[in-house]
Design a protein that fits this description.
Length: 456
């Protein structure tokens, strides 16, 4: 068989000159080269056949990225590793069967088929089944739901309610044909009335039936508590009691709930939410009777009390103890009262020393002293200021123009009120005003005589 290597072609259809291809065998003169041209639809159809025939069923390991459930119920996510990303989808029917939540970063094993969608040229992985890598599907679902309910506070001990002290009628949500109910009926029959709500305890729809049974029994007023449970089995068999719908129904129950699922080693989510967890259904029935026996025993112990057998002697003893207590109380009270009085007096003195009244009194005395000092200081200052004032007044009076006038001098003003210092400062006919020691003289200038020295 002879193998031919095709020459690469450039975009315009001519042979590429970038590589040195070996020469092809010369074509015969009769041979005519013929291209096979495919339409886009034909090529994508062939690609679709290649993918879907070669990968009809395959397991793929990868990391979940950006999971999202759409209103339609379809689950879309990316499946990736360090080198590639694969668009993946889980249709609504398969996604509805998924026991755990698909979380970001979760390592999973996915089983499905590869599909090529020609209208968009997309390749996607149609997932039919998902398993968490390294951890069982149910175990992961159990842990995820536990974390969710614990965060909401459904496991808190403060939510737990005690069983009724003397239960008369109880309800049961369990299978009517299982071994569990037979054991419970055998133990409880003749002691309490029992109302059984028959339901499936495993398989499709069992969780919804159990939740519905709990809700139905809560509508009755004659029940004291509810037992839910079943006998032992695998994790898959007991799974109905790990469903969220059952946990919510138990948490919402008005009546106290005893969860009795499987064997002692088994722990279900209903055990964690219930008011009381029983290792087995048989133990649940024994707990009910133990509660009754304890209540009856307390009643019988009370009947043995002297208050019932010999009430007169019991009352006499109580009266004597009461009188002794009164005497002791009176003596003790007197001593305590005296001690309290002394303490109160001491505290009163201490309080008075630190009281606002004492502080005001001390400050009042200090204020009186400061006031006296201030008055004395002010009086001395006033006397000094008075002497200084009198001295300055004498000096001022000695230099006062009025004092000069009293000695026979006068001051003459012209018509504008200016002091005349020379006869030449006025003129004939001008009215002048002369100020004397007592009064003024107003006159008219008729003649001006200048002193010779002044004229010069």
């Amino acid at each position: 068989m002879r193998v031919y290597r095709l020459k690469p072609f450039s975009r315009n259809g001519a042979p590429s000159a970038k590589e040195n291809w070996p020469p092809a065998e010369p074509a015969s003169e009769d041979a005519t080269p013929k291209r096979q041209v495919l339409t886009v639809s034909q090529l994508t159809h062939q690609i679709k056949n290649v993918f879907e025939k070669n990968f009809p069923f395959v397991w793929v390991e990868g990391e979940v990225s950006e999971p999202k459930i759409y209103p339609s119920g379809h689950l879309w996510f990316d499946l990736k590793d360090s080198g590639a990303v694969l668009k993946s989808v889980m249709w609504r029917a398969a996604a509805g069967q998924l026991k755990f939540a698909l979380e970001q970063g979760l390592q999973v094993l996915c089983c499905g088929r590869v599909e090529f969608y020609p209208p968009r040229g997309d390749i996607k992985f149609i997932v039919e089944q998902i398993e968490p890598k390294g951890l069982g599907t149910l175990q992961l679902a159990f842990e995820q739901l536990c974390a969710k309910l614990e965060k909401e506070g459904l496991f808190e001990l403060t939510r737990k309610r005690p069983l009724p002290a003397f239960p008369k009628e109880i309800g049961m949500v369990t299978s009517p044909s299982g071994a569990a109910i037979k054991d419970m009926l055998r133990i409880l029959r003749g002691h309490v009335r029992i109302l059984v709500h028959p339901t499936r305890v495993q398989g499709e729809g069992a969780a919804e039936q159990i939740a519905r049974g709990i809700a139905m029994l809560n509508t009755r007023d004659d029940l004291d508590c509810i037992i839910i449970g079943r006998g032992g089995g695998s994790l898959e068999d007991l799974w109905a009691f790990n469903e969220e719908v059952v946990a919510r129904a138990v948490a919402a129950s008005r009546l106290p709930v005893i969860s009795a699922v499987g064997h002692e080693k088994d722990t279900s989510i209903s055990d964690l939410v219930a008011d009381l967890r029983s290792p087995t259904p048989t133990k649940a029935a024994e707990m009910i009777l133990a509660q009754r026996r304890e209540t009856l025993q307390r009643f019988l112990d009370a009947l043995e009390n002297p208050a019932f057998n010999d009430p007169e002697s019991w009352l006499a003893e109580i009266r004597e103890r009461l009188e002794d207590a009164q005497e002791a109380l009176a003596g003790s009270a007197s001593e305590r009262v005296s001690a309290l009085i002394q303490r109160i007096c001491l505290l009163r003195a201490q309080v008075f020393q630190n009281s606002p009244e004492a502080a005001v009194e001390r400050q009042g005395e200090r204020l009186f002293q400061l006031q006296a000092q201030l008055s004395a200081g002010m009086l001395g200052c006033f006397e000094r200021f008075s002497q200084q004032t009198f001295a300055l007044a004498g000096r001022l009076d000695a230099h006062s123009p009025l004092a000069v006038l009293s000695r026979g001098y006068s001051i003459t003003f012209d018509g504008q009120g200016k002091i005349l210092r020379s006869a030449g400062d006025t003129a004939r006919g001008e009215t002048i005003r002369t100020r004397l020691h007592h009064g003024e003289v107003i006159s008219e200038v008729t003649q001006i005589e200048k002193i010779e020295k002044e004229a010069r």
